[in-house]
From TrEMBL:
Domain CheR-type methyltransferase residue range list: 1-273
Pfam family, one: CheR
InterPro entries, A to Z: Bact_Chemotaxis_MeTrfase (IPR050903), CheR_C (IPR022642), CheR_MeTrfase (IPR000780), SAM-dependent_MTases_sf (IPR029063)
PANTHER family from the UniProt entry: CHEMOTAXIS PROTEIN METHYLTRANSFERASE, CHEMOTAXIS PROTEIN METHYLTRANSFERASE 1
PROSITE patterns: CHER
Organism: Sphingomonas alba
Protein name according to UniProt: Protein-glutamate O-methyltransferase CheR
């Protein structure tokens, strides 16, 4: 399948308009693979025919399916293990002390894809039942893609997916075999919920999250959209909450509202800059 420059620009523009994500030149090689299945499913012969349908607006729902296909939904359990070790060893114990009176934690996984990050977080709590006995744990996973949110909500994964990042003991303990593959057991699913949400929109209810994870999402945004995303993330944090980004992401030069935690490398905290107010940003 030949992907012309004009087709690439149209699809890239559609993706950015719907999600804020850029399909930069060095990522446009993905187009052919990403939409091939959709073309077969819809009986569309060529990419040019797909573009014609999109431009003419004959099938409005098709644009959503194209955007879903173009999104990068790569994820796996305990991805890049170190961040989860950091949460388990430092961030969560500190919050256990700070929230000892209310015994409630709210965590938001933004850009959660098919949910492996959310269930990995749930495992951190499930594997320490004595420490978290009597606590209310609310783990929210959001993604701009309704298709991956539906999959995440089901908590069901293929044999390949459930083995990525999990040892055999964790796999057997926290997942049960079913007709569709392997499904997260009820204690793992109980604290989690999922919803469709665009990171560039106001934060999901209830806000004031103790921990927000937004890993490997911001790098796909333009500089302008990234600044807006940081505004949203900052407004979602509790005053003493923490933000975790991907290994290749940083707040430096992006926002004045967040700064690296000097005592806990890998986390970011709200600044005390009086000019960095937390009012909702205006959207043009």
């Amino acid at each position: 399948m030949q992907v012309s420059d004009s087709s690439s620009r149209i699809l890239a523009g559609l993706l950015e308009a719907r999600t804020g994500q850029q399909l930069t030149m060095n990522r446009r090689w993905r187009i052919e693979t990403a939409v091939a299945g959709l073309l077969r499913e819809r009986g569309i012969a060529t990419l040019d025919e797909l573009i014609t349908i999109l431009v003419m607006g004959r099938e409005p729902a098709l644009a959503n399916h194209v955007v879903e296909a173009l999104l990068n939904n790569e994820t796996y359990f305990f991805r890049d293990r170190q961040p989860f070790d950091l949460l388990a060893a430092q961030a969560l114990p500190a919050l256990a002390i700070a929230r000892a009176d209310k015994k409630r934690l709210r965590i938001w996984s933004a850009g959660c894809s098919t949910g492996q990050e959310v269930y990995s977080l749930s495992m951190l709590f499930a594997e320490n039942p004595m420490q978290w006995a009597g606590w209310t744990i609310d783990i929210l996973g959001t993604d701009v893609s309704s298709a991956v949110v539906d999959r995440a909500r089901s908590g069901t994964y293929t044999q390949f997916e459930v083995q990525r990042g999990l040892g055999i003991t964790q796999m057997i303990r926290w997942f049960e075999e079913c007709d569709a593959g392997w499904r997260a057991v009820e204690p793992l699913r109980k604290p989690v919920r999922f919803q469709v949400h665009n990171l560039l929109e106001p934060p999901p209810h209830p806000g004031q999250f103790d921990i927000v994870l937004c890993r490997n999402v911001l790098l796909y945004l333009s500089a302008e959209k990234r600044t807006l995303a940081f505004e949203r993330l900052a407004s979602a944090l509790a005053p003493d909450g923490a933000l975790m980004l991907g290994a290749g992401e940083t707040v430096i030069g992006q926002t004045k509202k967040l700064a690296a935690d000097r005592d806990c490398r890998g986390l970011y905290r709200l600044t005390e800059d009086p000019n960095a107010d937390r009012r909702e940003p205006r959207v043009a």
